[in-house]
Amino acid sequence: MTPPPSDPATAGHELGWTPIAEEAVRAASVLHPKEGALPRPSRRRVLTVANQKGGVGKTTSTVNLAAALAVHGLKTLVIDLDPQGNASTALDIDHRSGTPSIYEVLIGEVSLAEAAAQSEQSSNLYCVPATIDLAGAEIELVSMASREMRLKEALSSEILDEIGVDYVFIDCPPSLGLLTVNAMVAAQEVLIPIQCEYYALEGLGQLLSNIELVQKHLNRELSVSTILLTMYDGRTKLADQVTNEVRNHFGDTVLKTVIPRSVKVSEAPGYGQTVLAYDPGSRGAMSYVDAAKEIAQRGAEMKERSGTA
Predict the structure, then answer these.
(1) CA of 120: how far to CAs of 58, 99, 108, 189, in Å?
(2) Which of 80, 176, 232, 247 has the fewest CB atoms within 10 Å, measured from its CB?
(3) What are the angstrom distances between the C-alpha of 203 and each of 114, 176, 183, 220, 233?
(4) Which residues are registered as beta bridge partners of 128?
(5) What is the pLDDT of residue 307?
(6) How many C-beta neighbours within 10 Å does residue 242 have?
(7) Over the chain, what is the mean pLDDT?
(8) pLDDT less than 70: residues of the chain
């Protein structure tokens, strides 16, 4: 068989260049980007990934965006605030009961730095896992002083400087309870994944109302900075209709990149991996890399604006 050409740009026109070889080149570009590291933000960005509607790709987007930023040279921390622990599973972080986790951090038994574990998928990727103990945390938090501020206190600048991260992603449970409120109080930004399906905007109004309440009473710095469209199926008119509706309503807050519906993205957590580790040449992996690049570029533009302010 003719070996693949040295220039992938002409691959489609060369004899013997196969789809498998093309995917291998895409995988190499994801895992070993030629352009090097993405630009660092002017200040550390803490993003809460929230949507009380389940099945919208919230945890999937959290771990894959974090992994994409980490592969491109940005030190990233994922805080798994969902008692199901799916983000911990996808990053292959031990989250058996008794493991130092976000639960112990919230009740003040350990520091965030002590609970953070490095993922084997990247030296730049860290995770504070969630164990089953977190399931009862909301009840325990009710009687605690500053119950809405527990995560913010744990995410102090000193602790995050000690870990040295550029980005923090907080994966919320699919509800609007006390854990999600803690996440919003601790962050400056909210990232909302919205699936390109029927009833996509169902419950979104309630989420935005809660964000406004947090802004008004607990965290004036909070804003909805990013909306990511997920589960896009180009074969349906509905996906385009939802996409257009969201873009018309939220404007530039919506990332240009859309995450396609992908079997590889769905399979990856079952192997304790992000899609970037499971199948880096897949459409899903490439899409999350493109979305991460947009997020990083926005961080760089924030730097430029703050520098000229």
Answers:
(1) 22, 17, 27, 27
(2) 247
(3) 36, 11, 19, 23, 22
(4) 79
(5) 43
(6) 22
(7) 87
(8) 1-36, 303-309
Contact status, residue 196 vs residue 238, Cβ threshold 8 Å? yes
* Cβ atoms 38, 292 nearer than 8 A: yes
Distance CA 138, CA 147 (A): 9
Nearby residues of 163 by Cβ (< 8 Å), 6 or more positions away: 75, 77, 112, 113, 116, 126
- Dump the DSSP string for 65-77: HHHHHHHTT--EE
pTM to 2 decimal places: 0.87
Residue 106 has a pLDDT of 94
Domains of the chain: 37-300 (3.40.50.300)
Q: Are 113 and 159 in contact (CB under 8 A)?
A: yes
Q: What is the pLDDT of residues 87-127, one digit of tens each?
A: 999 999 999 988 999 999 999 999 999 999 999 999 999 99
Residue 270: CB atoms within 10 Å: 10
State the pLDDT at residue 2.
45
